[in-house]
Amino acid sequence: xxxxxxxxxxxxxxxxxxxxxxxxxxxxxxxxxxxxxxxxxxxxxxxxxxxxxxxxxxxxxxxxxxxxxxxxxxxxxxxxxxxxxxxxxxxxxxxxxxxxxxxxxxxxxxxxxxxxxxxxxxxxxxxxxxxxxxxxxxxxxxxxxxxxxxxxxxxxxxxxxxxxxxxxxxxxxxxxxxxxxxxxxxxxxxxxxxxxxxxxxxxxxxxxxxxxxxxxxxxxxxxxxxxxxxxxxxxxxxxxxxxxxxxxx
Length: 249
Hints:
The protein is 33% helix and 25% strand. By secondary structure, it is α/β, with parallel strands linked by helices. The longest helix has 13 residues, at 57-69.
């Protein structure tokens, strides 16, 4: 018996790692959020599937654990990476309530990386990843993290930037960051990364504040060095500058 916690990337089959594909193929049961099950079901239609809606994470994790303890091989699937805003930590926390069983976490390409590739190279230097969802993190804490990241001139990648109940959260985040960063700071966002309807936009912080995004959008706010190069968002690592300085010597 074994429980895989699988990060399957953006959603399409080509975005899964070989390790993720093999884990799912080797499993008898696939468990996940209903939207994620729909994304993988067509590629593994010989499996048994179990899904729950959003906010039912604990229920689906317990079900996966209990099926594993029955002697099954189970894959609990998460989009992106299972350890980045995924369910890997919850499985480990819940596992202490059960008899020992084998757990293996399968890494996947998180949205920060896959979306960054669409935009160009926004994360080549130090960056922070912050979720704007306050379902489990108080807004006061999120606000502090935004302030500190902007103050440190980090590139900031935002997950869960908006929803029907949180329609103005991106605007509020931009207002905080504008206290420390220039309105012309290069920014970008990608909707539906690697899925049907993918859209990418390069913009500025002053314009981003009025943009309409959703839960399937990943937002990137550059640092003071980030550039727009041929409509691609690029944060230099410093190689070119260092080379020029050495040549000047």
